[in-house]
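Risk register update: the risk of archive-format incompatibility is retired. Evidence:
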Amino acid sequence: MKVKDIMHKGTTCVEPGASVREIAKRMRDSDVGAIPIEADGRLVGIVTDRDITCRALADSDNPAKMTAKDVMTKDVLCCSPDDDIKVAIETMEAKQIRRLPVTDSHKTVIGMLSLGDISHMVSKELSGEVLRAVSQHHA
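Archived output:
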């Protein structure tokens, strides 16, 4: 099975200058926990609900002035739509991440692969395995 068979197609992206408030509203309106950040049509980062909580609210004196660039996770791991789902799952397990942006050969975001997508499409055994690995406490 390939990533393209499971991934959520069509993902809202924002530019690095987007305000944290705008990103939070998009998350709420789209019922998602992460927004990819693109510059010139290429993936440059991702902002998760945890990034907003920890970097904008807990670590900042003025979150209202913060942008995606201020809080985003850089060097985002991603996958290709043609990757085998088991390879994507291994990446998620090894790095304890819940979402992988899916990009084309130009690093343009074309979708997102999440734990929810995996849980709906693969065996209970495999989805349970990835959930346990991703949810382990950090040392």
